[in-house]
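Table 4 source record.
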Amino acid sequence: MASSRKPKRSSASPGLVSHVAKRLRGVVEPGERVVAGLSGGVDSVVLLDVLAKLAKRMGFELEALHVNHQLSPNAASWARVCRALCRARGVRCRVVKVDVVRGNSVERAARDARYRALRGTRADHIVLAHNRDDQAETVLLQLLRGAGVKGLAAMAEAREDVSPSMLRPLLDVTRFEIERYAKRRKLEWIEDESNLETRYTRNWLRHDVLPLIEARVPAYRETLARAAQNVGEAAALLDDLARIDARTVADDGSFRVDAVGELSPARARNLLRFAIAAGGWRMPDARRLDEALRQVLQARRDASVAVSLGECELRRHGGGMYLLPARGASAPAAAITWHGEREIALPHAGGVLTMARRRGDGLSAARLAGAPVTIRARQGGERLQSEANRPRRTVKNLLQEARLPPWQRERLPFIYCGDVLACIPGVAVDWRFRAGKGEASVVPSWRLSPPRVPR
């Protein structure tokens, strides 16, 4: 519930419609698809109302997405309300049910499920209704959690480095202004009963703590927003430093252990945090990160090290340091049918399979045309006959002879033609599928995705 005091008006809001139009102009182009997150609360209802006015004016296609967390007995009725709100404005509404994994924080689990649903939608831009009060609450929450600079930077008004881009055009608008717009427009919205439960830390801050802060520091919203912006600039500088370091230490899908060891501990941690964030994984706590770096950097050169970082794992083999999806973080993919693509990303295996067109090397294109070509995960017990005059051999022996580290063997994709194992990329080709001299062919190659370092 909003404070009864009237906070200072945002200097940027002569009117919410023109304010949002200004924020979207130059980012959202005519013909692009915009999806608005619609919870049914006052903030998102106001955003929907504003965007519906702007869609025709600016020429973009508008859709709303309501995420049903299935946590409240009122969840089904909220979905109906959202559909009605959209119908009244001629906006398509899609409702997605998600399963929230209950753990230490229901709030965090619900948020993660909601963002997964939003990022999975087909859109050019996702627009969310976070406001200046939300930003102040988020800064304080991150402080209480002991977050680093990226956490303290809180929410960005625009994230165009992700796809779909994520926009928050109300981030410098106060909740008071949003509610005033809703009342003037006689809008209807949902009141989520859980918003009053102060056992949730955000609600406790909103209802109990921030009114006390406002009594002493009336402009706290602007102050905390400015602090978040300043910290955001510091976070951007650390990202720039990580990019510089990555160009120095990255080598063909890995970081060179000796080069990382030459960085200061703070720079090594910054580089690893940046690579984890670029991979889209949840950030581990500082102690786990420090321990992972210690084990990898201090291990013998011939040691194979694997340290779990939650959603990802840090691996060392020889002189290379690898960041990979955690084993079991995503289920092994079902067989993927190849339709002639040059590259196929296999996120569950942490790499990319390239199928290059050649002549006289690799797999015969004509023989592959005889049956569906599928890419499968290793199951165990497979055999392959690499020479016509030699018996079939176990894949286990072939991989050992290839001197692949065990953790790479676990992730290696196998290529089948029909039900026959035709190729293990970089290891062996079944003689029946080997291309003849000058024959049109396909050469599969497998590479682990390098620690992703956006430029």
